[in-house]
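Quick illustration, no need to memorize.
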Amino acid sequence: MGPAFCAQKVALNDPALQDLSKPRVLLNWSSYCEAALLLLGSGNHFHTRNDDIRNCLLAAMHGLPELQEALRRTPS
C-alpha cells in the first residue's frame, strides 16, 4: 500500500481500509516497504525474487480483497 494509494483510500472512506486496525495498517506498510527494497536491491535480476516480492505484496494488501484478487490472477 503506497502512500498515494493509502491517501486515496482514506479520502474516499473506503470501508476495507477503515476496517483495518492501526497495527494491521502498519504491517501492510511494512510489507510494502519490504517489497520495494527487494525490487531496489535486486538490480536487473528481480525475476529471481518473484515469489518473495509477490508474498510481500500479498501481505501489503491484506484486507483489501480487490487488490489481492488482481495480483492472484497475474501469471507467474
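Residues 31 and 60 are 5 Å apart (CA to CA).
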